[in-house]
Structures are given as C-alpha cells and as structure tokens.
C-alpha cells in the first residue's frame, strides 16, 4: 500500500512511478526519477546527464524520505572529466546530518537534500512544509553540487501563491534566484524557469 500525503502537504496525490524533466537554458540535459514506496515513506532513484558551459557530467542518486518527506538518507554519484565521486548523506529527520559518516554541524536545521543536478528535489519542501498562501516558509537544505559533490548549506524560501493551481514563489539569495515554480497535483515541479520543464 502506497504512503499517503503528509498532513502538511494538504491534498497532494501520491507521486507517479516515474517522472522526467528536460533541463534547459542554464544547462542542456535530461533527468529521470523513479518513485517507490519504502517503509512509511518513499525511495527516489534517478539520474541526470547534462552539459553546461565548460563541462559535462552525469549524476545518479538514491534518496530515502520518511512519511513527512524529510530526507533520511541519500547516496549520490557524479562522473565528469574531473573523475568519479561518491557521497553519502544521513539525516535524522530533526535537522542533524552526517556527511560520509562525519557529523556536519553546518547543516543543522536542514530537513531536505537539494541536488544541483535535480529539478525533482524541489518537490521535497513543498510536501513537508505547512505552506500558507502569502507566507514565506524557510527551507534550508543540504545542497549538493553536481561536479564534485561538494555539500553546502543553502538558505531558501518557498511561498505558496493564491489560487487553485499549486504555484510557489521560490527564492535562494545566495544564487540571486527568485522565480515562480509551478507544480502538479502530486507536488512535482512542472516548470522551473531557466532550469527545467516536466516532460513526463
């Protein structure tokens, strides 16, 4: 039996078995993610192959989340001309993290993993947060770079916009990013301006 949406999410549908995005503008590439029930939550397995100015890379990931869509475990592999890199993240669902087995106090308070290589990971906060239209919600994340898998703390906010369509004002000041993200009924991003569009 598939897990039901979390109370914070409202009426999100269960995710599809597979979703795909075409990356554009900032980079050219393609991402595919498979969603499988895992315990009381989900296992998200996917990969992105992309080309951006000066480099090309492939990133594969497995992310395990609980019923509240909080990241518990992530394994990420990146391959580029710089070599092959592996990363393991462990979260306790309360804001503490370990990176490759070592405590990472700089990530304290983060509940999500956010992969630079992935449009899919933008779905994690919107499922988890009790987003009230017009009220920004902080969603700091363990942000993983695509080439080399460096891990940073990323401060970001999501604000649900009025109306029946699931639209969110997203901001990440460190990247000077502020845009409107559109989602579907399962809480998966449909259009991330300048980065990706959903194709399945």
Describe it for me?
It holds the Pfam family Glycolipid_bind. InterPro entries: Glycolipid-bd_prot_put (IPR009467). The chain is mainly β and 200 residues long. It is 3% helix and 51% strand. A 14-stranded antiparallel sheet has the order 8-7-6-5-4-3-2-1-17-16-15-14-13-10. The chain has a 3-stranded mixed sheet with strand order 9-11-12, with no helix packed on it. The protein is globular and about 45 Å long. Mean pLDDT is 93; it is low at 1-9.
Shape: globular
- The rounded distance between the terminal residues' Cα atoms is 23 Å
The overall pLDDT, averaged over residues, is 93
Q: Can you give the helix content as a percent range?
A: under 10%
What is the beta-strand fraction?
over 45%
Q: How do the SSEs run, as a string of H and E?
A: EEEEEEEEEHEEEEEEEE
Please give the radius of gyration in angstroms: 16 Å
* Biggest sheet record: 14 strands, antiparallel
SS-based class: mainly beta
- Poorly predicted sequence stretches spanning 5 or more consecutive residues: 1-9
Number of strands: 17
Give the oligomeric state of the chains in this entry, treating copies of one chain as homo and distinct chains as hetero: single chain
Helical segment count: 1
Strand order of the largest sheet: 8-7-6-5-4-3-2-1-17-16-15-14-13-10
Count of domains: 1
Pfam families: Glycolipid_bind (PF06475)
Protein name: Glycolipid-binding domain-containing protein
Organism: Georgenia yuyongxinii
């Amino acid at each position: 039996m598939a897990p039901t949406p979390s109370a914070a999410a409202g009426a999100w549908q269960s995710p599809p078995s597979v979703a795909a995005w075409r990356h554009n503008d900032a980079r050219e590439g393609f991402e595919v993610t498979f969603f499988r029930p895992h315990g009381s939550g989900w296992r998200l397995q996917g990969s992105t192959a992309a080309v951006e100015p000066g480099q090309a890379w492939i990133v594969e990931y497995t992310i395990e989340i609980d019923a509240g869509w909080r990241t518990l475990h992530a394994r990420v592999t990146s391959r580029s001309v710089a070599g092959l890199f592996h990363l393991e993240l462990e979260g306790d669902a309360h804001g503490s993290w370990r990176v490759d087995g070592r405590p990472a106090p700089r990530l304290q308070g983060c509940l999500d993993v956010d992969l630079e290589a992935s449009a899919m990971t933008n779905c994690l906060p919107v499922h988890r947060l009790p987003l009230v239209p017009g009220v920004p919600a902080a969603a700091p994340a363990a942000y993983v770079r695509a080439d080399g898998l460096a891990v940073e703390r990323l401060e970001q906010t999501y604000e649900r916009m009025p109306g029946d369509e699931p639209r969110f004002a997203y901001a990440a000041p460190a990247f000077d990013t502020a845009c409107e993200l559109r989602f579907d009924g399962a809480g998966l991003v449909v259009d991330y301006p300048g980065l990706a569009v959903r194709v399945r």
